[in-house]
Amino acid sequence: MLSSQTSRKVLFMGLGASGKSSIRSVVFEGKNPEEVTDYNATINYTRSTKNFIDSSFQIFDCGGQENFISAFMGEQAEFIFSNVAIFVWVVDMSDFEQVSTSKFYFNHGISRLQEFSPDGTAFCLFHKRDLVSSAQQEETYHTMKKYFEIEGPLDIQYRTTSIFDRSVYHTVGEMLQTLILKTTKALTVSEAIQDFLTEDEDLLGIIICNEEGVPLFQEGNYSDFLEPANMALANHEKLKSDFRPLKSLKITMEINNNLVVFQKLKKDLMFIGIAIKTGSAQFTAVKLEKIAEVIKKLL
Ligand SMILES: Nc1nc2c(ncn2[C@@H]2O[C@H](COP(=O)(O)OP(=O)(O)OP(=O)(O)O)[C@@H](O)[C@H]2O)c(=O)[nH]1
Ligand SMILES: [Mg+2]
User: Fold this and answer.
1) Segments forming the whole domain that contains residue 275
2) Tens digits of per-residue pLDDT, 73-116?
3) Nearest CA-CA partner of 11 in 93, 99, 125, 100
4) Which residue's CA is the nearest one to ligand 1's atom 26?
5) Which residues form the pocket of ligand 1, taking CB atoms under 6 Å from any ligand atom?
6) What is the pLDDT of residue 101?
7) CATH number of 224's domain
8) Burial bucket for residue 96 (CB in 10 Å: 0-12, 13-18, 19+)
9) Same domain, 138 and 23
């Protein structure tokens, strides 16, 4: 049974060409970033339904041209802003000329959210960070964050993202995790993952991603291994073509003295376990595979 949390909205808004539809295509539809380089303005909005474990959401991708945004903030506000779980405002952080217009509508969006979905959460993404030199990213982030901060009760989360690295997957994973963890099944899985990690100190981390690569669970201290592990996972072509048709899929990678095991779980879910290699690599691999089997049964 799907809970009453079902069909709440994840609402993407922001000015035209800020990157909303690209994020949707990459993170929710499994497209490669290279496939979404053409800009086709979204007319009005698109709506799609996505299921994550036992939760279901409607992904609203709103057109960002000003006539659409004005209507969403105005006469269509109640329809658009009702039942929103997550409001996502996307800003092109490389386009300084548009920043003040973006902030203007962001203020309106936050007001509408509080009016029609007072328990909704808000994320503000400074997007296309790949277009800002890495030397300037940190400073630009702080300046933008200061500019987009809004006084009030709502705790808005600010992140920098790009479809060309893992940031957008992690940010969307972060958004979804708190909502997913409201169902009994997801809570059971999360507790099991935490138990495994407390019981075995050689176990560094466990991540469960959906087939698009969004981490729906992530626990442990794995950040040093995330980049290499992500590189393997982000090798979309190979994983995707392997992922769907195969009943089982297992990839084992040795990184320094650690082992990373990717294993397909039920449905569209992928287990990633990271552990310190103790004794033979095979022993550690088998240990991780067994953990994946236990988690698989809970899903
Ligand atoms: N460099 C870079 N370009 C991006 C990124 N994300 C999206 N783009 C590009 O930005 C352009 C606009 O993308 P869309 O996703 O269609 O923009 P949108 O926000 O949906 O625009 P509207 O539908 O008009 O509101 C496309 O050419 C994308 O390839 C990113 O992270 N980095
Ligand atoms: Mg669009």
Assistant:
1) 184-298
2) 999 999 999 999 999 999 999 999 999 999 999 999 999 999 99
3) 125
4) 39
5) 14, 16-22, 36-37, 39, 41-42, 63-65, 127-128, 130-131, 162-164
6) 98
7) 3.30.450.30
8) exposed
9) yes
34 and 48 housed in the same domain: yes
160, 180, 200 - which closes a domain: 180
Distance 23 CA to ligand 1 centre (A): 8
Residues in the chain: 299
Predicted confidence at residue 239, as pLDDT, reads 59
Q: How far is the CA of 208 from the centre of ligand 2 (A)?
A: 29
Residues of the chain with pLDDT under 70: 1-6, 223-247, 267
pLDDT computed for residue 226 by the predictor: 57
Q: Whose CA is nearest to atom 21 of ligand 1?
A: 17
Q: Which residues lie below 8 Å from residue 142, measured CB to CB, with a gap of 6+?
A: none
Write out the H or E segment, with its range, that includes residue 165.
Answer: none
Q: Note the pTM of the prediction, 2 decimals.
A: 0.90
Within 8 A by CB and 6+ apart from 134, the residues are none
Residue 236 is predicted with a pLDDT of 52
- Closest atom, ligand 1, to C-alpha of 63: 25
- Domain boundary at 116, 145, 180, which? 180
**The pair of three-digit structure tokens given for residue 95, joined into one six-digit string:** 């386009």
- Tell me, in angstroms, the distance from the centre of ligand 1 to residue 92's CA: 8
For residue 42, give the ligand 1 atom closest to its CA: 23
Percent of the chain with pLDDT over 70: 89
